[in-house]
């Protein structure tokens, strides 16, 4: 496994694990997490909102049992107020909410610091100065090592690039969703790195693309029809997951944060990572997309 370091010194494994889709059953999830550790994956991505805190609790339990806290990095997210007795979710990026929520997340994760804390979305109308102030306080107090945002809104991203000292931006990024390309120069100019979520586009950029396209992309995606997707993906000789990983790792990406709902999926993704050469990819076969809203 190779590693990439961000400006605050966070050392990301080039392949991370997105924990959002881990099975609810602890024993099943434990097998996936054990497989990740044995593959030298050291970045684990979660959020307070995932299963209303239960995803953070699951990670906390696993790392308590496996005693790897100092060898791994945990990133969580904040900004959504959720309630145990209703499904209502209220957007709340206020200073007070962030300063309070971090304590709940740390408790659920069973740790006294978080490596990375991200704003889980955000709108241009938010009081962004308050949000940035809260993250800076947490960093100064040692409760978090670095902060970032998870956003696909160019106007929000540009504000945080200009006015904060964030380390990373999490964005969906892969051969098909190549919209982040329009922001790469601005992101690099601020020495910020990307956490690429959705690297296999829900399974479309894997050898199972045909059945995934049938099951999940009946209506196509972006400006691709299902037929066009299958036609392009079918033309590619190299393993699709290796191609999307080569594309991502030739960008200012700190970690590819893929999800896996079984040990076999994780093994397939790790095997693809082990074949990367950091350059050979099929980007030229795909459309040039760009964000069209929230500019
Ligand atoms: N706004 C945000 O901040 C945000 C939003 C989304 C995700 N995230 C983070 O990013 C992580 C990854 O996102 P994602 O889950 O959308 O990404 P993804 O890696 O594109 O999709 C994961 C899903 O793809 C399928 N898959 C993965 N590997 C496969 C393989 N080798 N063969 C066939 N299918 C495979 C599985 O679907 P099935 O389970 O259906 O088989 C798996 O659950 C999340 O876990 C979360 O931590 C953050």
UniProtKB/TrEMBL annotation:
SUPFAM superfamilies: NAD(P)-linked oxidoreductase (SSF51430)
Top-rank taxon, per record: Bacteria
Pfam families referenced in this protein's UniProt entry, alphabetically: Aldo_ket_red (PF00248)
NADP-dependent oxidoreductase domain ranges (all copies): 15-274
PANTHER family listed in its UniProt record: D-THREO-ALDOSE 1-DEHYDROGENASE, NADP-DEPENDENT OXIDOREDUCTASE DOMAIN-CONTAINING PROTEIN
Entry protein name: Aldo/keto reductase
């Amino acid at each position: 496994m190779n590693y990439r370091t961000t400006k605050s010194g966070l050392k990301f494994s080039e392949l991370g694990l997105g924990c959002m889709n881990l099975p609810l059953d602890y024993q099943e999830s434990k097998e996936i997490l054990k497989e990740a550790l044995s593959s030298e994956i050291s970045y684990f991505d979660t959020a307070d909102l995932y299963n209303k805190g239960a995803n953070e609790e699951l990670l906390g339990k696993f790392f308590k049992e496996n005693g790897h806290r100092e060898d791994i990095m945990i990133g969580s997210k904040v900004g959504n107020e959720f309630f145990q007795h209703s499904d209502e979710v209220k957007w709340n990026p206020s200073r007070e909410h962030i300063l309070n929520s971090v304590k709940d997340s740390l408790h659920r994760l069973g740790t006294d610091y978080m490596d990375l804390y991200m704003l889980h979305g955000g709108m241009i109308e938010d009081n962004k100065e308050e949000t940035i102030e809260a993250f800076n306080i947490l960093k100064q107090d040692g409760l978090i090592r670095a902060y970032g945002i998870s956003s696909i809104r160019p106007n929000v991203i540009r504000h945080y690039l200009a006015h904060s000292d964030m380390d990373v931006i999490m964005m969906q990024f892969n051969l098909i969703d190549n919209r982040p390309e329009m922001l790469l120069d601005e992101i690099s100019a601020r020495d910020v790195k990307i956490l690429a979520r959705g690297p296999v586009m829900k399974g479309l950029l894997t050898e199972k693309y045909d059945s995934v396209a049938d099951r999940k992309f009946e209506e196509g995606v972006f400006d691709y029809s299902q037929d066009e997707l299958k036609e392009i993906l079918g033309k590619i000789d190299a393993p699709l997951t290796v191609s999307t990983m080569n594309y991502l790792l030739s960008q200012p990406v700190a970690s590819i944060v893929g999800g896996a709902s079984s040990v076999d999926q994780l093994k397939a993704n790790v095997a693809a990572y082990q074949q990367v050469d950091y350059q050979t990819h099929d980007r030229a076969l795909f459309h040039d997309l760009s964000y069209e809203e929230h500019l």
